[in-house]
């Protein structure tokens, strides 16, 4: 039985040490490494050893009893959350490590929310019970209060003899049929055990155990219980389907596509289909590799439930479905900051761009962007620690010296009311016309497309071409040049010429139609917001509320319990991104803050931001809202506000 498990935690909770113990007790490694000794098996990169944190989601396998486990050790620092989320999407089960001393911390709640979003059955291991200040009961209460009331302590004795009465009743309360059986016939160990496994898989029960990874207390018992209560059912007889969860390049520059097989089998030299709408590709797999940390072994065939890497796929992206699985995964951990890459003037900037595009394939959240006019490279990041690590990583990997400008906010733009945009592209021997309806969509919904064009007006192939061009890149808004979002685009109609229309013509016409529509619209600037949860002593509640108001945030009625107050709400990232430092200062480290990305909402200081950015919509080299018409064998430009008259004249 194949089981993919992930180890997740707030940084320094003991996640990597726990992973080392699992690998040691299952004979995958002969010597237990330690983070502080810089010899942990899965923290193999120089940067991870130097900083003592996990940066990359590395994997290995081990066997225990009748199961083969594929273990992923994930980053615990918030700046590397996108790497963690990409790993979560392929997990069968998660193990969340919580420190018995520090308890539930801000990032622990982020981890929990992602696991719930992806519906991953989860076990908790309360670690560091040997440390001074450890309080297991308080941590369990915090898990139940801040994450799930369905957390329940489990012991090995519950599985081998009769379950204790509290667990029996806990399960019966969550299953009507079980409760009815209990009332009529009483307790049956086998039925209750199977029900426990089922409720875990349905995210109705979350087992909790405890111990010390460093002192090797409770780890073996945890593994025994975990193995007994987890069950997967992969089918090798179905057509192959899989999901891409990681892209890497080996020491020779060979592109590696890491895949979770969800059904069927895959062999070397088999063709594999992947890609989005209208971009389906099929390429042959040239190698299959099973990775164990930095090392790997080549195999001829992989089976459903396994994690592996392939060579031979040139353009598969993280999140892509493969084979019978067509849909692409969606991710929540979205960077809200961007930074300019500062390259040594003696080095060719285009070579630096090529290397950053390699990094972009491996970490698509970087969103590497090339500004042709300014000859600048920009990247999106989660925070300053990520920039520090990236600077070191680029130097070590590519021998490229770079630095980064101070991070800035990533803004977006949308419209407030429906418009129709028209684009006409007709230089000599070219012809295309596109009519698009653009209307506001639900906040944080992105861009959607609808086709209302009749095949009598435009061939289906050309209709698909227009759709493809609209989604091939982000589009610049008129206020700041930021990406357009939260709109529904409907293709109303279009025109082509039997002889003179080529594919690129529809790209020009579609972009001009979109831009012309934006010119007529009421445009709105959006900025990223945090959802926050702040816990402080009651006497500091007034100070926190005042700070939230000054930051243009909003908050709900505070919840007080004992000497503590919990305040939740939303605030702009721009005004709130440093607040964790301020909070730690005036609470002497006793206050806690949990920040998650809440989405994009209207900018609190739109005019100020527009003025500061200084975007000139008429000087954007990638866009024009004008149309091009042809007369007397020569093309001529018609401004956006007069183009419709020419089309309909």
Automatic annotation (TrEMBL):
Domain Tr-type G: 1-234
Top-level taxon: Bacteria
Record carries keyword DNA-binding: no
Keywords: Antibiotic resistance, GTP-binding, Nucleotide-binding, Protein biosynthesis
Xref: Pfam families: EF-G_D2 (PF22042), EFG_C (PF00679), EFG_IV (PF03764), GTP_EFTU (PF00009)
Keyword presence, Protein biosynthesis: yes
Gene3D superfamilies, sorted: 3.30.230.10, 3.30.70.240, Elongation Factor G (Translational Gtpase), domain 3, P-loop containing nucleotide triphosphate hydrolases, Translation factors
Stated role: Abolishes the inhibitory effect of tetracyclin on protein synthesis by a non-covalent modification of the ribosomes.
Entry protein name: Small GTP-binding protein
Species name: Aquibacillus albus
């Amino acid at each position: 039985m194949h089981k993919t498990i992930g180890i997740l935690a707030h940084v320094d909770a003991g996640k990597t040490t726990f992973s080392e113990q699992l690998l040691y007790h299952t004979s995958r490694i002969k010597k237990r490494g330690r983070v502080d000794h810089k010899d942990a098996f899965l923290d193999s990169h120089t940067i991870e050893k130097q900083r003592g944190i996990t940066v990359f989601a590395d994997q290995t396998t081990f066997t225990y009893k009748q199961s083969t486990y594929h273990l992923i050790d994930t980053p615990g620092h918030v700046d590397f959350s996108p790497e963690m989320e990409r790993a979560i999407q392929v997990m069968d089960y998660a193990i969340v490590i919580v420190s018995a001393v520090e308890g539930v911390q801000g990032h622990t709640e982020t981890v929990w929310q992602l696991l719930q979003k992806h519906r991953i059955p989860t076990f908790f291991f309360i670690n560091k019970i040997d440390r001074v200040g450890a309080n297991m009961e308080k941590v369990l209460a915090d898990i139940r209060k801040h994450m799930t009331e369905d957390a329940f302590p489990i012991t090995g004795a519950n599985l081998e003899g009769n379950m204790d009465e509290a667990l029996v009743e806990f399960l019966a309360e969550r299953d009507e049929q079980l409760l009815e059986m209990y009332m009529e016939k009483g307790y049956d160990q086998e039925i209750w055990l199977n029900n426990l496994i089922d409720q875990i898989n349905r995210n109705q029960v979350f087992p909790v155990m405890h111990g010390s990874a460093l002192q090797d207390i409770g780890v073996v018992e945890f593994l025994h219980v975990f193995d007994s209560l987890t069950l997967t059912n992969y089918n090798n007889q179905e057509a192959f389907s899989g999901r891409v969860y990681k892209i890497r390049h080996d020491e020779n520059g060979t592109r590696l596509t890491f895949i979770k097989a969800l059904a069927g089998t895959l062999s070397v030299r088999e063709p594999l289909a992947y890609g989005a709408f209208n971009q389906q590709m099929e390429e042959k797999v040239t190698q299959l590799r099973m990775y164990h940390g930095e090392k790997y072994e080549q195999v001829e065939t992989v089976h459903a439930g396994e994690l592996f890497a392939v060579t031979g796929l040139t353009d598969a992206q993280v999140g892509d479905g493969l084979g019978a699985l067509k849909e692409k995964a969606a991710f929540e951990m979205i960077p809200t900051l961007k930074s300019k890459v500062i390259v040594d003037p003696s080095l060719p900037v285009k070579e630096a761009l090529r290397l950053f595009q390699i990094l972009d394939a491996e970490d698509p959240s970087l969103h590497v962007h090339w500004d042709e006019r300014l000859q600048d490279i920009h990247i999106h990041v989660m925070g300053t620690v990520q920039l520090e690590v990236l600077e070191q990583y680029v130097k070590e990997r590519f021998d490229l010296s770079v630095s980064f400008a101070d991070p800035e906010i990533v803004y977006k733009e949308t419209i407030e009311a429906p418009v129709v945009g028209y684009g006409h592209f007709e230089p000599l021997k070219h012809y295309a016309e596109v009519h698009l309806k653009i209307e506001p969509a639900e906040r944080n919904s992105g861009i959607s497309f609808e086709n209302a064009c009749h095949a009598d007006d435009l061939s289906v192939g050309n209709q698909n071409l227009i759709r493809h061009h609209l989604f091939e890149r982000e589009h610049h808004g008129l206020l700041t040049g930021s990406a357009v979002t939260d709109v529904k685009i409907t293709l109303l109609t279009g025109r082509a010429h039997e002889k003179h229309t080529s594919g690129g013509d529809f790209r020009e016409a579609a972009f001009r139609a979109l831009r012309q529509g934006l010119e007529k619209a009421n445009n709105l600037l959006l900025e990223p917001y945090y959802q926050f949860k702040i816990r402080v002593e009651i006497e500091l509640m007034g100070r926190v509320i005042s700070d939230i108001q000054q930051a243009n945030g909003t908050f709900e009625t505070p919840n007080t319990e004992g000497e503590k107050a919990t305040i939740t709400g939303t605030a702009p990232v721009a005004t709130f991104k440093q607040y964790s430092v301020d909070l730690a200062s005036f609470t002497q480290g006793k206050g806690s803050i949990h920040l998650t990305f809440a989405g994009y909402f209207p900018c609190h200081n739109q005019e100020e931001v527009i003025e500061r950015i200084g975007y000139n919509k008429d000087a954007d080299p990638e866009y024009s809202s004008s149309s091009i018409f042809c007369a007397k064998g020569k093309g001529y430009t018609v401004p956006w506000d007069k183009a419709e008259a020419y089309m309909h004249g």
